[in-house]
Amino acid sequence: MNHQVVTYLAEGVDWIRFDVDALLGQFWNNTIEGLSQGSIYALVALGYTLVYGVLRLINFAHSEVFVFGVFAAYFTFYGLGFRPGPTVTLGIGELILFLLLALIAAMAVSGATAVVLERVAYRPLRRRNAPSLVFLITAIGASFVMQQVLFIWRGGNAEQAIRLLRPEPVFTVFNTAVTNIQIITVLAALVLLVVADTFINRTRLGRGIRAVAQDPDTATLMGVNKERVIMITFLVGGLLAGAAALFYLMKIPQGASYQGGFLLGIKAFTAAVLGGIGNLRGALLGGLLLGVVENYGQSLFGGDWRDIVAFVLLIVILMFRPTGILGESLGKARV
Amino acid sequence: MSDVTDTGAKPGGEVDDDAEVPAVGGIVAELRHMSAEERARHEAEVAEVVAPDREIEVGVGDTLLAMRDVTLRFGGLVALDSVSFEIKRGEILGLIGPNGAGKTTCFNVITGVYRPTAGQVLLEGHPLGRRKRYAITQLGIARTFQNIRLFNEMTALENVVVGADARHRTSVLGALVRGPRHHREERQAVERAMALLEFVGIADRAADKAKNLPYGYQRRLEIARALATEPKLLCLDEPAAGFNPAEKEGLMELIRTIRDDGYTVLLIEHDMRLVMGVTDRIVVLEFGKKIAAGLPAEIRENPAVIAAYLGVPDDGVA
Amino acid sequence: MSTQETTTGGPSRLQQWRDRWNGMSRFQQWAFLVPLVLLIYALPVLNPPILSTEPGYTFSIAMFEVARYALVAIGLNVVVGQAGLLDLGYIGFFAIGAYVAALFTSPDSELAKLPYLVVLPLAVLVTMVFGVLLGSPTLRLRGDYLAIVTLGFGEIVRLLADLSPLRGNAGFQGVGQPPGTRADGQDVFNTSDGTPWYWLTVTLIIVVLMLVGNLERSRVGRAWVAIREDEDAAEIMGVPTFRFKLWAFAIGAAIGGLSGALYAGQIGFVNNQRFDVVTSVLFLAAVVLGGSGNKVGVLLGATVIAYVPLRFQSLYEYRYLIFGLALIILMIFRPQGLLGARQRLLAYGREAYRRLIGRPEQVSSDSALAAEPVKGAGS
């Protein structure tokens, strides 16, 4: 064991640094990258927010719902004949087709996983009117099991990267290149969020979800099928997580790992709380904000601090403004 | 003496049960064999343990608690609108009003669950201010809940001891090493809690978990738990809800006994017969405002109150 | 008197044993306990073939692992089982205990060196302080948020260990140990023989169990259970809920830190690889499995969690899967855990119940997690 010389706990030891130059120098790069990262957080955050709004449950296993989507997208690529190695150049039509196929696969797998999870793990508890601690422990157990299923199936190492699309700069703002993947991620996330928002606010099913979120008992009395609403809530959350999974894999092709969900999941949850849990638009705002802030933190304090910044942010928000920036509301007036 | 105390120690009807009572004998077992005279003495002893600080000469008259222009707003909703009334030491004050009049809200202000937007609550002349809820209990205000809120997994006895703990000063360190104060307070708390269970008439189920008690017992257990905190003012929030007439009768008896033991009682109740039968004075709320106050007989005749209860449009009434 | 009501139909054999045990006098109970404790102490020396984990894993070290988990479970049980606060960052306190031990004893650290037996209480103290530091801002949060915040805390501790002052993956070698040399010149406490460490840990477990038991049967334990059952009602009944939650948190943290310091000493090496959230969940599983709120239960749970994967090496790889599944199944079918007895909360309860109604208190197999809201109990 070679002991490198460390000026340990003496002066100038780098617990933390404040590199303002790096922060300012990479400001726009961090912002743009943060927005695209944040879009993924936002999509996953919606799943937490929806389920929390309806059931008052932190669905810990949602991160694994997302990871299942990542693997689905990966194996779609694989099934389409792509292999780890240099990126194949594809025609635009082909590329769109393949990405769409992967999107559909990922959304289907994540959506189905979420619904099965709800059926198998949570529904029996609901029927028994179990206290919330029991729900939470079940959620943790489910997250654990799903993670381990992937681990036993695929082992501890991440899958080798398969790339369909190389990140290439499309245009430049503030001296910073904006890549095709960043544009696709942000735009697609925005579209999906608008669709989700419309679904919740404009459709009959969405009204049902909001009704249950506001007052489950009254909603049931008014003829809303609560079980169905809950199933749809999990489904919608799962679908969005599946979409996030594809963008995540495009961005980080080596990201298909059994434990890839944990960190992303807790950050997405942070995003949901940051914006105001139970609040759809809050999830978007929170996601983007978190993506940007943790990039700034990384530049300012150093690479090790990226995740710490996110966790500290989570704790600080919960302590000082647990209702988030936009307040908690899936229905209009939550008490 | 009260019938209420008897329910816990009903002498008849359990003939063959005596065999199961061990030789050590319980208080309950002893009660069965007492003469009337012994019994009276015993009940006096129980009452002594129940209310150690009671004023034997109940000093009715001076103000115990005063609501001074208390207003409470939730956003735009005015839950209490400049409500003032006083509770005098040793009386039973009824707080009545139609549904949603702000009775329970009033309780919540008195017990510190809500802080008044404006106005003050004074206990013995001192404002409650921004005290924490537990501190208000320690000052001497205890309450029961309209929807029963017992510690379900605890036995009845333990529930009452939690109330008694409000007066205890054993530190965590003291409990860790079982110091002398810990021993003293534990012993006293158990004694007092047992006496209180007997007092409210549920001693026979002392060892059962609260959640397994019959409904009427749960209501009485709530009262015992509140009394265990040695309150100056006992607030009862619809204690007779869901009771049949016979049970209500027993409860009225219990409330009177509590008052006779030197407690002051604030009572929210829907059942007019019960309120009129047991209270010394009544305050009437409607839409968060005090619309009347006075003796039960006066309230019964008060046109504003009648209007409030019959739903007459209040243009003619003050 | 009425016959005792058993609300849930738990295994009746278990119930019978429990009733028999509860019916015994203190003296009789001790007569059973003392030989049992002696047997537990003797285990690593006896190394019974049925129980042995060898050749796969040194039995004495396996026993130390079990004891270490048991200690952790007792501590976490104070927080989760008694006070009902879901702490998912418990590993953070364990890690702090381990790092305190390393920082003050390892030659890789530049801090002043202290004897291990001084560092042990120091680790307890430091983790307790961290428990208060984390608890005082966060314990006002509602239950599920608390779970997330503690999860975040555990991760922060782990991530901080990556930073250069804590030496990341390189870690600290040569963590100290209690003094003493054997006849053959070797240290009594070393990294290859778990037996002395096991004895030390079991002794500490007994001390901690007694202290925690004292708290349980006092106003402190009652306050915790009252908070778990209905926090608002507890506060209105005069329980300073925040203060007692903080105590639960601090006491739990201290016990976790103690276990961490023991772990660091036995293994002799601390780095950032051993303190992930997965282990936190394993700790939680230990508490929930046996029956949260029940000391015997959590000891059983910890034993299962730590021992089974070492005994049946073929299961080792699947342990997380198995325990995760066990959690789900348990929550659905038996949320009170394998043994779900309630704890006693009165110092003079036995004699009081005897005198009052001539029978012991109701001890059914429900507990914390089985608690269901009483709705519309008929009159």
From TrEMBL, chain A:
Membrane topology reported for the UniProt record: Multi-pass membrane protein
Keyword Membrane attached: yes
GO cellular component terms, A-Z: plasma membrane
Chief location category: membrane
TM ranges: 38-58, 65-83, 95-121, 133-153, 173-200, 229-250, 308-327
Assigned keywords, A-Z: Amino-acid transport, Cell inner membrane, Cell membrane, Membrane, Transmembrane, Transmembrane helix, Transport
One example of a Gene Ontology biological process annotation: D-alanine transmembrane transport
Localization: Cell membrane
GO molecular function: L-isoleucine transmembrane transporter activity; L-leucine transmembrane transporter activity; L-phenylalanine transmembrane transporter activity; L-valine transmembrane transporter activity
PANTHER family: BRANCHED-CHAIN AMINO ACID TRANSPORT SYSTEM PERMEASE PROTEIN LIVH (PTHR11795), HIGH-AFFINITY BRANCHED-CHAIN AMINO ACID TRANSPORT SYSTEM PERMEASE PROTEIN LIVH (PTHR11795:SF371)
Name of the protein: Branched-chain amino acid transport system permease protein
UniProtKB/TrEMBL annotation, chain B:
Biological process according to GO: D-alanine transmembrane transport; L-alanine transport; L-isoleucine import across plasma membrane; L-valine import across plasma membrane
Pfam family, one: ABC_tran
One term under GO cellular component: plasma membrane
PROSITE patterns, A to Z: ABC_TRANSPORTER_2
Any coiled-coil regions, as ranges: none
Single Gene Ontology MF annotation: ATP binding
Keywords noted in UniProt: ATP-binding, Nucleotide-binding, Transport
Domain ABC transporter: 65-312
Gene3D superfamilies recorded: P-loop containing nucleotide triphosphate hydrolases (3.40.50.300)
Protein name: Branched-chain amino acid transport system ATP-binding protein
Organism: Goodfellowiella coeruleoviolacea
TrEMBL record, chain C:
Subcellular location per the Swiss-Prot or TrEMBL entry: Cell membrane
Keyword Zinc: no
MF annotations from Gene Ontology: branched-chain amino acid transmembrane transporter activity
Membrane topology listed for this record: Multi-pass membrane protein
Residues of the signal peptide: none
InterPro entries according to UniProt: ABC_transp_permease, LivM-like
Residue spans crossing the bilayer: 30-51, 57-78, 85-104, 116-136, 143-161, 197-215, 246-269, 281-308, 320-339
Any one of the GO CC terms: plasma membrane
Domain of life: Bacteria
Keyword DNA repair listed: no
Swiss-Prot/TrEMBL keywords: Cell membrane, Membrane, Transmembrane, Transmembrane helix
PANTHER family membership: HIGH-AFFINITY BRANCHED-CHAIN AMINO ACID TRANSPORT PROTEIN BRAE, HIGH-AFFINITY BRANCHED-CHAIN AMINO ACID TRANSPORT SYSTEM PERMEASE
Protein name: Branched-chain amino acid transport system permease protein
Organism: Goodfellowiella coeruleoviolacea
